[in-house]
């Protein structure tokens, strides 16, 4: 593909309302959607609001819904579309719109604060911390997360039911809890939190989050399902239940 | 516009501007010292440019090579910087980096491990031993996320998407800052007893850069305008390996870890050309045969592969190969790891490089070589600070991380940036808090001063001129790329100065359409002020340094000059005018000099 003119439909508007605006834009070979949005901004729509930082798939800022699919604009190449295909770019739906393609994702930062911090146990007798590579790899997978919030965006628990937002942390933060639970050094117990406040039970493992993760993290299989299993083992194991009952803890 | 714009006011002991590694670490420290602290960042938290750092954090922990220690790290850093470094910063950095890395582990970071379960360390350019603590090739993400997750529980305020544009002063002292909220466009004044600048780089003034949106030189400009001094601005680091194709991704970083893990540079004839570019300065420590170079990875008794010479040397070599007609199809050279390491190893050690080339260039790096070329990467210089305290010459103003100059001299070694952030970020927080505690009498923010700044900020909406900020930015990038690039001459530098003067006039005619809420044209118009200011400083420094040293190469003065190797080019701005003066670099004490003279 050399230079070609493409048709872009981009959402323009704010919380009060808006509409798609159609533009013909020059696209060069090898461009990604974010490049074309930038070209549009530089030549036709200077005040088009769009978040981006690294343009290399590492910061997770430029999340959008491209032809209905939640993607990073910087990692979506123009040559993945049919020649002549109109490309529609909309803001991610689950979060309140600020303007154009920028949404208010502050809910995610609130959820992050609610998760108790990492708390390591005592050091080794020689003053070091020792962990084997295979033991850190489980949590390392989750720490690849670039916080693009696409998983939060597609999760139907909050996408279709905003009323669940207070009671449900969303896949990103259930994964964060799982990450800490699987951290070889951590001593905090967050299983109560996972079940009671983070709403682990709301997740019915449809794997929408896993499908859209640009880092290809197995959110459902490796984080959420094991977390559910741990909660079951800890909270619904009859022996553990009896011990808690006797000890007077609920 | 009304005579007086309304604005909200916040009051703190310490404000930290910028929330990359240095800013986060500074805010954590200041807050821990018991002073009321705010962290202000122009993006969302966790998105700063630090997130893009790949290879690792340099710290002489000796986990892989027990022979390693701070003295060797100090020596490597000074030699890599061609001795222009501030010796005291280099000493503190080398001594404290291991503790700062271990501290990250205490806060939850999960580094890759050695077989003994300790933090693993990898080879990088200019480092004698495998020294970089890392997590695959996404170490910056690990660093920023660890600090971010630690900070949110420490009782400091975080103001996101807030862009600070001017500093306020009470007499000589800094007493606050003026900015705007990007989502709403509303104005804000921060009253503060101390301000820490941690705003990072300047790369967005160049066309091909590895830098993110934010790297527009804000902090350097804020400091300069407030009376701070700049050093070594001419020493821009061009990273040797950025992507070169497709054009739209040109400049995106390809980590040095590719070469650290066994990758090698080749020209179109298949020759490992770095053997032809070993400078006299590094001859005694660099392998001169492919056999020795390859053996070095396993046994450090061999000399280091020339593929891992410091970045300035490798960038110039690539430039020369392309110029000589031995480049790759898209104007770079080849970086080959696929014939040297297994596909499994590559995917495990370099997952984001694999991903990046696959998704952006349709190249499978386990099967094909990469095409790479130099990209504007790092500001080695920056604001002059006290080595121990990070204080600038302006009372109450501190600077840490990439915005500060001195540690890296004329050229930074890979991995020394992330360690810089946490070593000097911590020191900035510590000493800013100490300064605040020692202050007598409150500083007052002058409402007239704040209103004057606000009028400047809003002026792009008021004008009748027709300049488009995006067009000015694009022209500036062309100018800096072609005239103030890797190889410089007096004539081209003077031409750049003249063009920058015209860009300034054009910026004064920018008219921004639309409203104030989340308006990127307005944001860019304001950021252009900073970009033009740092472009001018770099160009002036480059004209003044009539020699070639580290990241600064003059075609008309191709050799290093011993006399100039003992001075910094110091830039000041008084009454709107820039000045450049040569000032001696601090004299190193004899015991440290001795470390540099040791052969091995």
Give the overall shape of chain B. Answer: globular
The succession of helices and strands of chain A, N to C, reads EEHEEEEEHHHHHHHHH
Please describe the biggest sheet of chain B, giving its number of strands, its sense, and whether it closes into a barrel. Answer: 7 strands, mixed
Number of strands of chain B: 20
What fraction of residues of chain B sit in β-strands?
15-25%
The largest contact between protein chains, plus residue counts on each side, is: A-B, 58 and 66 residues
Identify the strand order in the major beta sheet of chain A. Answer: 2-1-5-3-4
The count of strands of chain A amounts to 7
Assess the beta-strand content of chain A as a share of residues.
15-25%
User: Low-confidence parts of chain A lasting 5 or more residues at pLDDT below 50?
Assistant: none
Q: What is the quaternary state of this protein?
A: heterodimer
Report the C-alpha radius of gyration of chain B, rounded: 23 Å
- CA gyration radius of chain A, whole angstroms: 22 Å
Low-confidence stretches of chain B: none
CA-CA gap between termini of chain A: 64 Å
User: What is the general shape of chain A?
Assistant: elongated
What's the helical proportion of residues of chain A? 25-40%
The separation of the N and C termini of chain B measures: 67 Å
Mean pLDDT of chain B: 96
Let me know the largest β-sheet of chain A: 5 strands, mixed
Describe the structure.
The complex is a heterodimer of chains A (250) and B (600). Chain A is an alpha+beta fold and 250 residues long. In chain A, helix 3 runs antiparallel to helix 6. Chain A has 10 helices and 7 strands. In chain A, the strands form 2 sheets. A 5-stranded mixed β-sheet of chain A has the order 2-1-5-3-4. In chain A, strands 6-7 form a two-stranded antiparallel sheet. Chain A is 35% helix and 16% strand. Chain A is elongated and about 70 Å long. The mean pLDDT of chain A is 94. Chain B is α/β, with parallel strands linked by helices and 600 residues long. In chain B, 35% of the residues lie in helices and 17% in strands. Chain B contains 16 helices and 20 strands. In chain B, strands 1, 2, 6, 7, 8, 9 and 16 form a 7-stranded mixed β-sheet that branches. Chain B has a 4-stranded antiparallel β-sheet with strand order 15-10-19-20, with helices on one face. In chain B, helix 1 links the parallel strand 1 and strand 2. The longest helix of chain B has 25 residues. Chain B is globular and about 75 Å long. Classes of the chains: A alpha+beta (250), B alpha/beta (600). Chains A and B meet through helix 1, helix 2 and helix 3 of A and helix 3, helix 4, helix 10, helix 13 and helix 15 of B.
């Amino acid at each position: 593909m050399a230079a070609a003119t493409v048709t872009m439909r981009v959402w323009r508007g704010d919380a009060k309302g808006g509409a798609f605006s159609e533009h013909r834009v020059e696209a060069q070979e090898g461009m990604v959607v974010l490049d074309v949005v930038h070209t549009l901004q530089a030549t036709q729509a200077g005040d088009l609001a769009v978040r981006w930082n690294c343009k290399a798939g590492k910061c997770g800022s430029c999340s959008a819904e491209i032809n209905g699919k939640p993607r990073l604009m910087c990692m979506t190449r123009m040559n993945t579309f049919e020649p002549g295909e109109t490309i529609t770019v909309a803001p991610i739906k689950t979060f309140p719109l600020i303007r154009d393609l920028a949404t208010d994702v502050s809910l995610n930062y609130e959820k992050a604060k609610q998760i108790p911090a990492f708390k390591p146990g005592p050091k080794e007798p020689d003053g070091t911390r020792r962990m084997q590579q295979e033991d850190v790899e489980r949590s390392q997978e989750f720490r690849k997360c670039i916080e693009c919030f696409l998983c939060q965006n597609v999760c139907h628990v909050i996408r279709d039911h905003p009323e669940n937002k207070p009671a449900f942390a969303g896949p990103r933060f259930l994964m964060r809890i799982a990450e800490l639970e699987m951290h070889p050094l951590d001593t905090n117990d967050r299983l109560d939190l996972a079940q009671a406040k983070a709403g682990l039970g709301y997740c019915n493992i449809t794997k929408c989050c896993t499908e859209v993760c640009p880092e290809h993290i197995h959110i459902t299989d490796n984080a959420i399902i094991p977390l559910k299993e741990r909660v079951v083992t800890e909270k619904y194991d009859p022996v553990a239940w009896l011990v808690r009952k006797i000890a007077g803890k609920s | 516009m009304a005579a007086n714009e309304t604005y909200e006011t916040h009051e703190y002991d310490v404000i930290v501007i910028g929330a990359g590694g240095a800013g986060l670490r500074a805010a954590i420290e200041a807050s821990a010292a018991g002073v009321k602290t705010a962290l202000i960042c122009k993006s969302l938290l966790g998105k700063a440019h630090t997130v893009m750092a790949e290879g690792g954090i340099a710290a002489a922990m000796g986990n892989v090579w027990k022979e390693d220690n701070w003295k060797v790290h100090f020596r490597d850093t000074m030699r890599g910087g061609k001795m222009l470094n501030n010796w005291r910063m280099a000493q503190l950095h080398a001594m404290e980096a291991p503790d700062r890395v271990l501290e990250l582990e205490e806060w939850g970071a999960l580094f890759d491990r050695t077989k003994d379960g300790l933090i693993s360390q990898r080879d990088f350019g200019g480092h004698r031993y495998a020294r970089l603590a890392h997590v695959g090739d996404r170490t910056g993400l690990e660093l920023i996320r660890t600090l971010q997750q630690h900070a949110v529980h420490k009782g400091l305020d975080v103001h996101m998407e807030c862009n600070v544009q001017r500093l306020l002063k009470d007499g000589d002292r800094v007493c606050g800052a003026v900015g705007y909220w990007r989502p709403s466009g509303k104005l804000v004044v921060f009253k503060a007893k101390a301000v820490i600048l941690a705003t990072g780089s300047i790369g967005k003034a160049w066309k091909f850069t590895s830098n993110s949106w934010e790297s527009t030189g804000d902090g350097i400009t804020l400091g300069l305008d407030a009376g701070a001094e700049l050093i070594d601005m001419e020493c821009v680091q061009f990273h040797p390996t950025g992507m070169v194709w497709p054009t739209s991704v040109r400049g995106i970083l390809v980590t040095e870890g590719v070469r650290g893990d066994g990758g090698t540079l080749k020209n179109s004839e298949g020759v490992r050309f770095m053997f032809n570019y070993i400078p006299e300065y590094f001859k005694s420590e660099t392998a001169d045969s492919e056999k020795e170079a390859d053996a070095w990875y396993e046994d450090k008794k061999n000399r280091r592969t020339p593929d891992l010479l410091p970045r300035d040397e490798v960038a110039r070599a690539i430039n020369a190969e392309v110029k000589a007609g031995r480049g790759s199809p898209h104007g770079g050279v080849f970086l080959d790891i696929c014939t040297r390491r297994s596909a499994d190893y590559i995917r495990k050690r370099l997952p984001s490089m694999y991903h990046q080339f696959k998704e952006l260039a349709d190249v499978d790096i386990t099967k094909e070589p990469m095409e790479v070329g130099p990209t504007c990467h790092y500001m080695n210089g920056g604001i002059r600070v006290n080595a121990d305290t990070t204080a600038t010459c302006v009372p109450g103003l501190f600077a840490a991380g990439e915005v500060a100059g001195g540690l890296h001299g004329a050229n930074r070694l890979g991995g020394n940036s992330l360690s810089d952030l946490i070593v000097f970020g911590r020191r900035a927080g510590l000493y800013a808090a100490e300064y605040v505690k020692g202050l007598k009498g409150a500083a007052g923010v002058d409402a007239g001063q704040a209103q004057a700044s606000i009028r400047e900020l809003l002026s792009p909406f008021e004008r009748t001129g027709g300049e488009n900020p995006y067009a000015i930015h694009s022209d500036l990038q062309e100018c800096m790329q072609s005239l103030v690039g890797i190889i410089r001459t007096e004539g081209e530098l003077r031409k750049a100065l003249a063009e920058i003067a015209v860009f300034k006039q054009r910026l004064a005619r920018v008219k921004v359409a639309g409203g104030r809420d989340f308006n990127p044209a307005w944001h860019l118009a304001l950021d252009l002020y900073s970009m033009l200011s740092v472009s001018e400083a770099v160009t002036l420094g480059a004209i003044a340094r009539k020699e070639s040293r580290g990241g600064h190469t003059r075609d008309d003065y191709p050799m290093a000059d011993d006399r100039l190797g003992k001075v910094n080019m110091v830039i000041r701005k008084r009454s709107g005018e820039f000045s450049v003066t040569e000032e001696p670099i601090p004299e190193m004490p004899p015991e440290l000099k001795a470390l540099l003279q040791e052969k091995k």
